[in-house]
Amino acid sequence: MRVEIVDPVTRRRAGPGQVGEIWVAGPSVAAGYWNRRDDNAAVFGARIAGSNDGPFLRTGDLGTLGHDGLHVNGRIKDVLIVRGVKHYPQDIEATVEASSSLVRAGCCAAFALTSGDEEQLALAVEVDPDRNALELIGRIRQAVAEAHGLQVHSIALLGAGALPKTTSGKLQRFACREGLMTGRLPATVQWTDAAPRASALAEAS
Q1: What is the mean pLDDT of residues 159-181?
Q2: For burial by CB atoms within 10 Å, which of 21, 43, 68, 178 has the most?
């Protein structure tokens, strides 16, 4: 199996230690999708710019390749760009998890909401029951600001098992975003900017 790290825009090889899209080639790579010629050319027939090197499969994953092997940073489509700076959701999620013991491990989703021409950071977080939700939200906001220089626009606190996940347990960030935007995400407390709003469930408790 051959692995290359490639700039997904210029399609040139990324420099040592630089993050890029993971491209792979080898006998175990599939020939393509069934009856999807255009997709096959774009995804399975990629070639490195300035050469005839290829074809490669574009995985859609970001990563780096170093002396200690391949490190996967996440999916290209999940990267947040706030004020022109790229942020990886996994890094933000790790910061949120470390901010309080009330945050359930592996149960935080960071994603972008569009406001005008800007992307703003939103979080959906599963937490253990606690009466002081505003204090927890304050801790999360402070931790994210200190670690990433980002202001959180919206935080939804949820009960155990409420985050959308795949059958293999992976977070579905797009589904979290859609759920927050449509009101289908079962938040017990939802905070936006400086105005907390408790759901009927939270008020009833």
Answers
A1: 90
A2: 21
